[in-house]
Amino acid sequence: MKVARLLRVKCVVVGTLISGEIDYNQLKKSLLANKDKPAIINLNIGTTLKGAIDDLDLVLQSLEDCGFTQDRFYIHCDAALYGMMVPFDVRAADISFKKPIGSITISGHKFLGCPMPCGIFITRLRHIDFLSSEKVEYIASKDNTISGSRGGHAAIFICYALNKKGFEGLQQEVQECIKKAIYLRDSLRYHGIGALLNKFSNTVVFERPQDDAFARKWSLASKGNISHVVVMQHVSQEMLDSFVSEFVKNRCAWYQGNNKQMKPPCVAEDIGAENCACAFHKTTISW
Ligand SMILES: Cc1ncc(COP(=O)(O)O)c(C=O)c1O
Description:
With about 290 residues, this protein is of the alpha+beta class.
């Protein structure tokens, strides 16, 4: 939205499915309603709140179905966190420059853990050449950023992190994070708290705790009825155990203490009926 405002281009917001993925039917409708213009599509390879990964192939199919040829669309893949994780998934082949995408961005300070905000932007040479096609002699390089200079430190930190962890090190970290995320989801469910964990994700989504002090203590990010925990490398099983046991203990007080009328909320609209543990849905769930 911010970039669209800066560039003064018309921006159409496409809704999402319960998983957090782009709503492919809505995307088609928006494409058909705007067929006279080319489309710039921002895909999420891991949404902020639910860690949902948009299906690139379905989006490409939608574009084709709506009559958008490759010269009439540009796809950017925002892979801020998951860009460092999806290569270790069998679906890695799904996101590739062998397909007609324009660019991918990956944060350096998220999964890689660089100590300052930084990131990687991968695009096609022709887009870089459009910005600056000639080498500037005195810097022996192309001037390929908007502002001109670029920080060398970030590149060094990213390179260092990649080399230090190595392919196998990163793979192991990814697998451990996902394993711990599954453990957290299952622990919450075991205690009757509905939770969503998207496929190949380390982001666990659950009902929003009713107590701001609790949410602050655990640095929970919330939106509407739901909160999430992003299980990163530093999160241990002990941390997860103590989070869940405190949540369960406090939850009893929130829902059965002073206000006996209050019931655990239904979050089916946020995380899906199959993941909701409210009184109405839990009878149908078999986790
Ligand atoms: C999906 C997504 N895109 C982009 C960003 C921002 O990335 P950066 O911090 O590298 O600017 C975030 C979170 O910070 C995010 O979750």
